[in-house]
Each structure stands twice: as structure tokens, then as C-alpha cells.
Design a protein that fits this description.
Strand content: 15-25%
Radius of gyration: 19 Å
Oligomer: single chain
């Protein structure tokens, strides 16, 4: 694609159950988003423990350096050592939720998100939220790693939905667009996908395209919803990419995913 010095470029990405994202890029929003507002009880803001905390690895911020979250399961190896050192035992034991680390430790807003285990899904639902069934639940076999059962779900509430997961993206950007009035909602998200989208923005900027406003058209699509669709420098983030023409329902968009293998289709 050849870029001229046009005022805006619109791109989108579409999702599948394997965690894909869709975004519209145009030149209007701030690259320095405001911080999230107050959150309810299960989202905890904490100060560092009085003991010395070792310097956290830069890998937490991704290859783009713009990630603002880290996922973990309550029983995972990562969970207890980091939470106990950053927040103390009470926070580490309080279960799934969004934990905001003090900026004087991380050097920026950063959230540690404890997931609800996949095994807590009852049938095709989590609470009142319908998520449907993954291929493995019914066929007991996995054709591709991208379609394996996820490790867990992020619980998204009206109070924590504005939590930034990277410089340009928030939790709510990746929610399925059905069940508008059902809360809490549940989201599956990969750090690698958010990281890749930030690298796409970075690459556009390197080619003279200023990207300031981003809208995710379709982020995480639950199996329930679907039943009703950079890499040269970072080969470990290989996935699908394809351009789509505008229709009466939406403008032109580009599909981007991190399925693990390079895939291209549509018009070049």
C-alpha cells in the first residue's frame, strides 16, 4: 500500500475466536490518553510494599514498549511472587481482578490482571454472560493451537472497562459487541495481539502516517458471537492479514491476527 501525505488513514482488523482485533485508524485522538477514572472494589490500587522491590523486566512492556498490562492466573507461577512483592499478601490472595501498580515502581500506569479460570465457565455461560463453546469442548481435539481453550477470562465491569492495556487501547476496546446490557462481561485477550497492534501503529508512523485516533471495530469474538469471522521484524508475532473493501455497513478495514503462522488473502 502506498501512503501519501493524506490527513488520515483508516484501517480495521477483524476477529475470530482465536483472539484477533479490529481497529480503525484515523488522525484525530491523543497519543497520550487520559488515565482511567475511579474503579470499584474489585479493582485495587496499591502502593509498593515497604521492602525493596527488584527492577521488573522490560519484557513486561512488550516488543513495542507500550504494553500496560500483564495477565496471570491465580495459580500461575507468575502470580504470587510478583503480587506479593508489589502489593503484599492481602492483594495476592484476593483473587481475580485488576491490580494497578504504583507508577513510581513501573514508571507508567500498569495493571496486573488476574483471570477467572476457564474451568469456571458453566455450559456456555459465565454468570449471565453467554460465551458459547470452544472447539475442544465438543470435539476433544485441536487442529491449531490458536483454537485451544483459553487459560482464563478477564472480568470487565463498568468500573474497570477503561483500564489501559497499552498506550492506545483499553479493555473495553476488545469486548464482544453483543449483550450490551449484561455486566460483568468476560474477555479473552492476548498480550501478543495488543503488542502487535502497537507495532502496526509504530510502523505506520515510520512510513509517515500519523495515527492519533484508534477504534477497535471487532476485538474478541466469543464462539457465541461468531455463531451468529510488522511480521518481518517480529516473526514470533506471525499471523493473518488481509484488506477488505468498504461496504454500506462499514468503511475499508484490514484484518490482523496472531494465529502463529503467516496467512494472507484478499486483494494485495
Amino acid at each position: 500500500m502506498h501512503h501519501k501525505s493524506s490527513p488520515a488513514v483508516r484501517w480495521l482488523t477483524i476477529a475470530t475466536p482465536a483472539l484477533i482485533a479490529v481497529m480503525t485508524l484515523s488522525a484525530t485522538a491523543s497519543a497520550h490518553p487520559r488515565l482511567p477514572g475511579p474503579v470499584r472494589a474489585e479493582t485495587v490500587t496499591v502502593s509498593p510494599a515497604p521492602t525493596t522491590v527488584p527492577i521488573l523486566p522490560d519484557s513486561l512492556f512488550g516488543r513495542s514498549g507500550k504494553l500496560r498490562f500483564k495477565l496471570f492466573s491465580a495459580s500461575g507461577f507468575f502470580a504470587l511472587p510478583i503480587l506479593e512483592r508489589l502489593f503484599g499478601d492481602p492483594a495476592a490472595e484476593s483473587g481475580p481482578g485488576v491490580y494497578h501498580a504504583a507508577e513510581d515502581i513501573m514508571g507508567r500506569p500498569f495493571a496486573f490482571i488476574s483471570m477467572i479460570p476457564f474451568t469456571e465457565k458453566a455450559g456456555g455461560k459465565l454468570g449471565d454472560y453467554r460465551v458459547g463453546f470452544w472447539p475442544n469442548e465438543r470435539h476433544r481435539r485441536t487442529a491449531q493451537e490458536a483454537y485451544e481453550n483459553p487459560e482464563g477470562f478477564i472480568e470487565v465491569t463498568p468500573e474497570n472497562q477503561d483500564t489501559y492495556v497499552s498506550e492506545h487501547f483499553r479493555l473495553r476496546d476488545f469486548l464482544t459487541h453483543d449483550q450490551q446490557d449484561v455486566w460483568p462481561k468476560y474477555l479473552v485477550l492476548r498480550e501478543s495481539l495488543v503488542d502487535k497492534l502497537e507495532l502496526v501503529i509504530e510502523d505506520l508512523a515510520a512510513h509517515g502516517v500519523r495515527v492519533e485516533h484508534l477504534v477497535v471495530m471487532s476485538g474478541f469474538r466469543t464462539p457465541q458471537y461468531n455463531s451468529q469471522g510488522v511480521e518481518r521484524a517480529h516473526p514470533e508475532l506471525a499471523g493473518g492479514a488481509a484488506p477488505y473493501r468498504a461496504t454500506r455497513a462499514h468503511g475499508p478495514f484490514a484484518h490482523v491476527d496472531t494465529r502463529g503462522a503467516r496467512a494472507r488473502w484478499g486483494r494485495s
